[in-house]
Amino acid sequence: xxxxxxxxxxxxxxxxxxxxxxxxxxxxxxxxxxxxxxxxxxxxxxxxxxxxxxxxxxxxxxxxxxxxxxxxxxxxxxxxxxxxxxxxxxxxxxxxxxxxxxxxxxxxxxxxxxxxxxxxxxxxxxxxxxxxxxxxxxxxxxxxxxxxxxxxxxxxxxxxxxxxxxxxxxxxxxxxxxxxxxxxxxxxxxxxxxxxxxxxxxxxxxxxxxxxxxxxxxxxxxxxxxxxxxxxxxxxxxxxxxxxxxxxxxxxxxxxxxxxxxxxxxxxxxxxxxxxxxxxxxxxxxxxxxxxxxxxxxxxxxxxxxxxxxxxxxxxxxxxxxxxxxxxxxxxxxxxxxxxxxxxxxxxxxxxxxxxxxxxxxxxxxxxxxxxxxxxxxxxxxxxxxxxxxxxxxxxxxxxxxxxxxxxxxxxxxxxxxxxxxx
Length: 423
Ligand SMILES: Cc1ncc(COP(=O)(O)O)c(C=O)c1O
Description:
GO terms for molecular function: D-serine ammonia-lyase activity; hydro-lyase activity; pyridoxal phosphate binding. The protein has helices at residues 4-12, 27-30, 38-58, 75-85, 107-125, 141-147, 159-171, 185-193, 205-217, 231-250, 271-284, 300-307, 335-341, 353-367, 373-376, 380-384, 405-421, and strands at 18-20, 71-73, 91-96, 151-156, 174-179, 197-200, 222-225, 261-266, 288-295, 347-351, 392-397.
């Protein structure tokens, strides 16, 4: 594990790092006076519960209308990683947001929550809805007609656009997603098939967000979902932690100082991993160890963490931001998330794209789990950090089930070739 100076040198050269956060303080202190509070997270949870009857009606694949993913043990994958990389691997669980219904990624809870908050606020203000009512009435024509007078815009590398776009278009909002050049063609096609307008920017993700924000500000009745600054997104992401607590209880997995839990979270702008880390630290305090993972070519949060300031971009250091982990292809971190997390999280790791492909291949081969390269980043911590005594680890698989089969097959082939080539 590197110290701060060495980590910075390696980040600049796009070499992998594992940096234990030297600025971390006890979570009870780091959680004081934050921009988002636990009551915001509980509000988000209650809002998602209120909308469950509507979601169950419009997205029957969710069953009860709660958009949640399974968690599962992964002993075969743990053995493959242990043997293949010559490391000790603790009890391993996969949190499979890759299989999250409706939107297929970790961005769903936050993105969908913000759209539901918007719809609820507008409908209540108009006198069309009371929060005690059964929200399945939102599927009625009159609500769609009402929402169609408003537009929604968002900038996205792909998965936030899918989450916001699907829910916003379903409710009837006129929806535009601004995408960066890294965004995958299939994600754009999927959105267009749902009636969403996709604007492609010949720039990176941060620039797409800025241009989208400016375009929205110049329109009347346009609401911008701001991936870099939104507390509604953040509190929606954090709801995952409350639900994970219940899932761990049902697995009889204890988390305390003798049974630490390490959680590996792929990081782009920081909102989704930051929200989850925030929620988990509220529940488990310092017994949960949250590590973010980024690609070596888009290490924006790593730079911000190691330098101790959020106003950084990878281009300032001549780093190209190009990675196959499209969800993590972000040049600048969220200022808001950095402020909430820089003294809270346990560390940050960067990983090369080749390792992502290998781990994606192993997940499919040994555990039958389909995940995208961004999600495979969650497994890299296992190849890097030695387990703590009594540790259980969660690799947060952040997306993947929506990957088209032909794209997925060619990724697996590449990963398999890399894996065999090195062994
Ligand atoms: C699959 C996947 N994993 C992780 C992330 C990281 O989330 P955030 O950008 O909020 O850090 C994203 C972001 O879009 C994603 O699509």
